[in-house]
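Late entry, written up from scratch paper. The run itself happened at the end of the previous shift, but nothing got recorded in the book at the time, so transcribing now.
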Amino acid sequence: MKNFDWIVIGAGITGSALSYELAKQGLKILLLEKDSNYANATRYSYGGIAYWSGVDDFSIQLCQESREIYHQLSEELGQSTEFRELDLMLTIPIEKNPQAITNNYQKFFVKPQLLSPQESTEIEPLLNPSAISGCLKLPHGHIHPKKTNDAYQQAFLRLGGTINYEEVTQILSENETLTGVQTNQEKYNSKNVVICAGGLSRSLLKTLGITLNIYFTHSQLILTPTVDINLKTLVMPAILNRLDIEEKSGDSGLKSLWNHPDDEIISDVMEPGAIQFLDGSFCLGQISQIRTNPQAKIDSDSAEKTIRKEVGKILPELQDLPGKLHHCLVAFCPDSNFLVGKIDSLRGLYVFSGFTSTFVFAPPLAKRFASWVVEDDEKMPSLL
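Output as recorded:
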């Protein structure tokens, strides 16, 4: 059995960033990912960094730390993350009162600028002014999610870290103390394991009899090849119905459904948006479905038609772009922005998952987590 100081389960942006920060502390780290061709929420995401979204002293501090990290991250990792700053355009539906929607954003420490439809199209010419009553403009960060993830992993490997593509089948323990993990290929010994498995975190915790307020949606979006159209901004709806269904998932009436996974669609929302990466490719739309079975099959044809139709209302020139629908699980916590900390009922078990704004909060919290590990574990929050 191979020995490591820490085992990190899940090689999306959360696991990759955390592995890198732990390795920087001189620790021997194993990063486990079930598939080398990972199709997770990091790969299929917009890569937006909402560093304007802090609402209290702690989240504001994390947002500021995040912005500082990204400004120098490509240099630190030795590989481009394609970081840039651009305008975020939050579209307000034609039937909604723009001022009322604007008021909903006053809780954030960076306040949005309300634009008329005409002002909106001056900034983003691809917008359809007849489909909106206005836009909220905010300063936003952006990265290429896959290239950033790869950069973290390559820097981690240069620090002596190990990445193995194996599926974790069991977390091992003895006398309420963690001893390692069993994969579909081998056993690995460690006194510390941190779960960064995104939408599969809940399933892993359940094998240990541990239930936390972490759930997942089935997310569907379209990725396109490079095209000869220029989108200047990141476009998203100002009314994020996805957050509403995530919040309701923590209600007592729905919690029991998660104990009996099936394919039923409990909630289903469509959010028309788009981002263009620096290579000219696009990410279009997002459908979020709450289905308690992580292996539930989706109707790809129907999902693609819905995304194209709704994106086409806001951004008509993007409706018929060539592209392919992709599907992944997206973890969330209905009562917090993330779950980061230790599980006291099983010594050596930690969770780093459930981020609502992953690209904002994961990098600064990974740094803090690694500091807690080597400096003072008592500062680590307890989750259970």
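Residues 33 and 141 are 27 Å apart (CA to CA).
(Scratch paper discarded after transcription.)
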